[in-house]
Amino acid sequence: MATTVNHEEWMQLALDEAHRGSGWVSPNPRVGCVIVRDNELVAKGHHQRFGDVHAEVDALRAFSGDASTATMYVTLEPCAHDGKQPACTNAIIASGIKRVVVGTVDPNPLVSGRGIQILEEHGIDVIRGVRENECQWMNRWFSHHITSGTSYVTLKAATSIDLGASVQQGHDRWISSEESRVVTHVLRSEYDAVMVGIGTVLADDPLLNVRLSEGRDPLRIVVDPNCETPPTSKLAATAKEIRSVIFCGHHSVESEQAMILRGLGFEIIGTAGTTSHLDVATIIRTTGTMGIASILLEGGPTLAASFLNAGCVRELILHIAPAFLGVENTWFKHITPMDITLRSCTSVGPDVHIIYTVTRS
Questions:
Q1: Of 2, 79, 197, 202, which sits most exposed with the smallest number of CB within 10 A?
Q2: What is the spatial distance between Cα 219 and Cα 23, in angstroms, rounded to a whole number?
Q3: Residues 160 and 89 reside in one and the same domain
Q4: Are residues 193 and 47 part of one domain?
Q5: Is residue 29 located within the same domain as residue 171?
Q6: Which domain holds residue 226?
């Protein structure tokens, strides 16, 4: 009896491999690959670091034996152009593999179907669209960045059931649980950059690094119109260790305070705006040109409203604690109408984590 091949199952393994590149490969996409022969896994690989070999080559290096009866599963269409690495299509053709299962077509205009076309022209059977939604979600940051030139912004808000954004004096400063704080640090390790406003810096003196999980520290960005970041802050104390950027108004970029902060290790970038508000759309265009594909926005309600109302937020993550705070400072008070679509809802410790995608109405 012939063995039934479960393409969905093997592609899920490839997705698991792709996730291992989180935080290390940007602005490249996260890509995973597995090679199967006689319905058994014989090799796997992923894109491990920006500039290193791609997932297909990583898997092929671990593969041995007859390739003519093997099937390759790859989450993203193999590249067909030479960049920091040679075209993956060449390596696949040379390997002798006769079937490739592709999760989703590459949105990169340099590829966009060309990789599949070349494989088929060389007699390789290509199956596409297996776990396509999951594969596209895996590389939503890359897809947005490569097609728009701007950074993909995810707003993460820790809140109570009544949407409280801060705790009352005399209470624990944390709204969310320890389990949720670990998730936040995992997110930081996966995103290219974490961003807050000057209000958060002055109120909380955050470090914005990764401490509660494994992974690398993200670039740290402060939206600070008047360059008010204190030279005594934790961010300033570590600015020479962790890349840190301040976006300020053009009126402050050459101020004495800006000079002091530069000396402490900050990059100071002037942008359009006033003493109270910067043009956030310009900011994400600038970060896009800097190669920053994804930003985790961890600021408070004021910065969140600026990004939401400017149409700059693509994803919303809510960590909801089982409490009513009864505070004046709440999220989403002055937001213009927009549509959001539920992506997932999960329990993490005592909290509920909800992910929405955001579209303007």
A1: 2
A2: 11
A3: no
A4: no
A5: no
A6: 149-360
Please identify which residue in the block is written with the tokens 């508000």.
Answer: 277
Q: Which of 107, 142, 177 is the last residue of a domain?
A: 142
Measuring CA to CA, how many Å separate 113 from each of 79, 80, 325? 9, 9, 52
Q: How far is CA 44 from the centre of its chain?
A: 23
d(CA 162, CA 157): 13
Q: How many domains is the chain partitioned into structurally?
A: 2
- Single out the residue in 142, 176, 195 at which a domain terminates: 142
Q: Which DSSP category does 164 fall into? A: B
Question: DSSP assignment of 271-337, as one string?
Answer: ESB-SS-B-HHHHHHHHHHTT--EEEE---HHHHHHHHHTT---EEEEEEES-----S-BSSSS---
Query: pLDDT tens digit string along 69-113?
Result: 999 999 999 998 777 788 999 999 999 999 999 999 999 877 789
Three-state DSSP class for residue 26: coil
Share of the chain above pLDDT 70, in %: 96
Residue 168 forms part of a structural domain: yes
Residues 74, 199, single domain; the answer is no
Contact 225, 248 (CB under 8 A): yes
Strand 70-76 vs strand 32-37: parallel, antiparallel, or unpaired?
A: antiparallel
Q: Is the whole-model pTM more than 0.85?
A: yes
The answer for residues whose C-beta is within 8 angstroms of residue 242's C-beta and 6 or more apart is: 209, 217, 219, 220
In a domain, 286, yes or no: yes
Question: In angstroms, rounded to a whole number, what is the distance separating the alpha carbons of residues 262 and 38?
Answer: 59
Residue 23 near residue 48 (C-beta atoms within 8 A): no
Tokens of 187: 């997110």
305 and 191 in one domain?
yes
